[in-house]
Write a sequence for this structure.
């Protein structure tokens, strides 16, 4: 690890610790959404970016994680319309089981994932979204039906990740509610997820995955078991999806089936394309961009010129936010083929004045070693 | 060299961070979350200061209900302006805090976390999935909330006030209307086309109850919100030989259903839920079919009715937003704003403008809204506020595209009905 990387890591870690003491709940929640999205996007980037397997069904695995956690952790209860089942397991166990369940769901699908590639797999995984939606809406005792069901807060060794009005936790004068506590959980999970994926990508499996993406036959000739790798990556990616789903559920405090739809799956694809295919950093940058930008724009677009207050004639803040977000996506895709990560790499090269000695910045659509972490 | 530059930059960043830490965190100083008494002796909480009262709106300006959401927001802004011009509430001016969620649950949750701590009540929240997603927080915050959805799953929560009737009540009154005025009698078959989800299922509860009571046979057809073409459903209804069809879907599906039925020679009455019709349908090819024998049930009076309060609203709205179409959102939004403001006024009388105080004041009113065509009882929250539904009929020339066909009434059937809650 170079000195600059180390310093950057220290700076980021310091920021992650300090932030919950200063920013209000709404920022923390946006940050948590971004972290959960980052975990999911890392998983999808392993599959789509690094191995070249298109998946449109990532939202399904998020749903499996979210609903799995709720089912494992909830105590059976009499609901309004129908009784809700649950296993009432300790919540950390439930979280781990939910991730494994998502992996198992991916495993069930992996015979298909191993045989199909590219757009064909994309269409096949699309089916998962619709199957998932049907199951979520109709398996009421497990999922709570259309309205979803409340999510029990995570509790690790007596420490509850929720608001505790009776015994408030105050650190350095700052009241620590659910979001502040979850923030640290999110940071730890994201760090673990990122490091693990980086290990996979940098090691032998990562090289094998990239070879499969770049030249399947060559990979086979060199002794890479192509089908097994494809299936394995699919399972791993669905486990990342499941973990993201658990975190999302904990932040939402209520699982809602409508959320885990096609739009969510597409936004995950947007994240890795915008951020940069095939790398952990790209996935994280893309996830932050896609989940934070619309919120930032909605929040501040009323300060822009020509924007009217809601309830007046003209372009309102909400419409403006959507237009600007769309523009930003188009600009990134048009002018930054390596995604935002490619831009960062380029800037670093430039500021380091190594442009002359370094090979010209890569603009290929497939990730290059420079854009990969 | 690059490394030393980077480290210098990071050192600068670290210094900045340190400097920031040295200042006391704003969060650490507490903020105004606690209830406090202000100068005029009124207890205040979040969203209320000495001179303003902030009221939230979580609306849909960019999603599938954008035109409805825009009408709601416009109408509520109009109401607040009129109240402010008349001196405000409790000596304070009303201020709307609007957030768009585009019918996306995550955005709605994010919006609630952002504006929730800054407002005293929610004048409208579009969409029952969105209300359900933040229901726990609404209950914990005791935030008076008016959802713009009428499913029975929204009942049973003290701070959440569903306006007027729920979908099932409308359907029971609708079946009663069919029996009394459209010659549907015991032994006949009637169809019910409904969306999966709590809108359709709430409505279905009502039609099932009414059909059983009147000895009718109910032919159910469930569709998804993404389905557009109703040809298969029409064929199924035709095969079953239904004498009338109840409609609890979106306006597009209604247009397809009614148009295809009439084209196929199935000339029968249709009765829709209030969300099944939109005046935007009239200029479409389905328009003539809708004008023929389609009715919809609504708990709130349509804006095209003769009530003086609504006539005045229509004039004011047209004066303020001359280019906006008038749809059902205008009256619905205006009425909901009225509910919130009256709760605030009542709360002011008892000198308690905290959220809990506002909810308590709201729940003390047992007959509200005579001027909007039908009183609502807010003292109970496990029952709909009203059991009376209007029968409205589309009309090309009427304001809002509909006229009152039959005045609001409460059928005998509905009195025996037990509303499922939660």
């Amino acid at each position: 690890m170079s000195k600059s990387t180390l310093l950057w890591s220290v700076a980021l870690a310091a920021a992650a610790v300090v932030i919950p003491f200063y920013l209000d709940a709404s920022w923390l929640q946006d940050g948590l959404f971004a972290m959960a999205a980052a975990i999911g996007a890392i998983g999808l980037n392993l599959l789509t970016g690094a191995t070249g397997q298109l998946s449109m069904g990532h939202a399904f695995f998020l749903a499996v994680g979210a609903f799995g956690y709720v089912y494992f952790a909830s105590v059976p209860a009499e609901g309004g319309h129908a009784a809700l089942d649950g296993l009432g397991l300790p919540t950390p166990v439930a979280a781990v089981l939910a991730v494994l369940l998502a992996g198992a769901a991916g495993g069930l699908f992996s015979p298909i994932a191993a045989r199909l590639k590219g757009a064909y797999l994309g269409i096949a995984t699309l089916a998962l979204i619709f199957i998932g939606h049907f199951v979520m809406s109709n398996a009421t005792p497990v999922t709570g039906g259309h309205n979803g069901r409340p999510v029990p807060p995570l509790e690790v060794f007596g420490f509850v990740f929720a608001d505790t009005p009776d015994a408030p936790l105050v650190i350095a004068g700052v009241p620590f509610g659910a979001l502040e506590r979850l923030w640290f959980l999110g940071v730890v999970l994201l760090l673990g997820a990122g490091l693990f994926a980086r290990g996979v990508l940098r090691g032998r499996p990562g090289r094998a995955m990239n070879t499969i993406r770049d030249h399947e036959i060559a990979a086979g000739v060199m002794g890479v078991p192509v089908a097994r790798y494809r299936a394995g990556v699919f399972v791993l990616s669905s486990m990342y999806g499941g973990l993201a789903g658990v975190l999302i559920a904990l932040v939402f405090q209520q699982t809602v089936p409508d959320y885990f739809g096609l739009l969510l799956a597409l936004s995950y694809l947007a994240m890795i394309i915008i951020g940069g295919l095939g790398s952990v950093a790209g996935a994280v940058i893309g996830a932050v961009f896609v989940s934070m930008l619309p919120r930032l724009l909605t929040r501040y677009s009323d300060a822009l010129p020509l924007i009217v207050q809601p309830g007046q004639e003209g372009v309102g803040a909400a419409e403006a936010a959507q237009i600007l977000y769309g523009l930003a996506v188009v600009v990134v895709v048009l002018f930054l083929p390596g995604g935002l990560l490619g831009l960062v790499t380029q800037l670093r090269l430039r500021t380091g004045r190594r442009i002359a000695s370094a090979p010209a910045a890569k603009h290929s659509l497939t990730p290059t070693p420079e854009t990969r972490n | 060299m690059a490394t030393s530059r980077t480290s210098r930059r990071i050192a600068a960043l670290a210094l900045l961070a340190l400097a920031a830490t040295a200042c006391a965190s704003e969060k650490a100083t507490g903020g105004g979350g606690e209830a406090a008494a202000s100068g005029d002796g009124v207890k205040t909480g979040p969203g209320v200061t000495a001179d303003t009262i902030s009221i939230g709106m979580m609306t849909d300006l960019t999603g599938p209900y954008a035109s409805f959401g825009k009408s709601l927001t416009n109408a509520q802004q109009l109401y607040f302006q009129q109240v402010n011009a008349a001196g405000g509430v409790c000596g304070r001016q009303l201020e709307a805090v609007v957030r768009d969620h585009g019918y996306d649950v995550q955005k709605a949750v994010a919006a609630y976390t952002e504006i929730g701590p800054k407002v005293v009540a929610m004048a409208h929240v579009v969409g029952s999935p969105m209300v359900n997603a933040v229901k726990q927080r609404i209950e914990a915050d005791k935030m008076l909330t008016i959802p713009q959805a009428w499913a029975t799953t929204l009942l049973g929560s003290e701070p959440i006030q569903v306006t007027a009737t729920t979908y099932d009540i409308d359907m029971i009154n609708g079946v009663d209307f069919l029996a009394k005025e459209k010659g549907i009698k015991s032994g006949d078959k009637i169809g019910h086309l409904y969306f999966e989800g709590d809108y359709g299922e709430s409505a279905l509860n009502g039609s099932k109850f009414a059909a059983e009571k009147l000895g009718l046979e109910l032919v159910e057809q469930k569709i998804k919100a993404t389905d557009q073409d109703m040809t298969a459903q029409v064929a199924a209804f035709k095969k079953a030989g239904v004498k009338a069809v109840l409609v609890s879907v979106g306006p597009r599906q209604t247009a397809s259903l009614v148009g295809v039925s009439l084209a196929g020679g199935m000339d029968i009455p249709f009765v829709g839920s209030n969300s099944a019709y939109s005046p935007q349908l009239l200029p479409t090819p389905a328009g003539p079919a809708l004008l023929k024998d389609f009715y919809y049930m609504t708990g709130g009076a349509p804006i095209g009715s003769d009530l003086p309060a609504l006539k005045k609203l229509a004039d004011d709205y047209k004066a303020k937003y001359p280019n906006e179409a008038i749809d059902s959102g205008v009256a619905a939004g205006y009425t909901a704003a009225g509910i919130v403001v009256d709760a605030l006024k009542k709360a002011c009388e008892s000198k308690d403008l905290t959220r809990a105080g506002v909810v308590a004041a709201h729940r003390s009113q047992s007959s509200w809204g005579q001027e909007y065509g039908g009183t609502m009882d807010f003292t109970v929250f496990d029952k709909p506020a009203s059991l009376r539904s209007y029968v409205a009929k589309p009309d090309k020339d009427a304001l809002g595209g509909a006229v009152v066909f039959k005045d609001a009434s409460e059928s005998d059937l509905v009195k025996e009905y037990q509303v499922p809650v939660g």
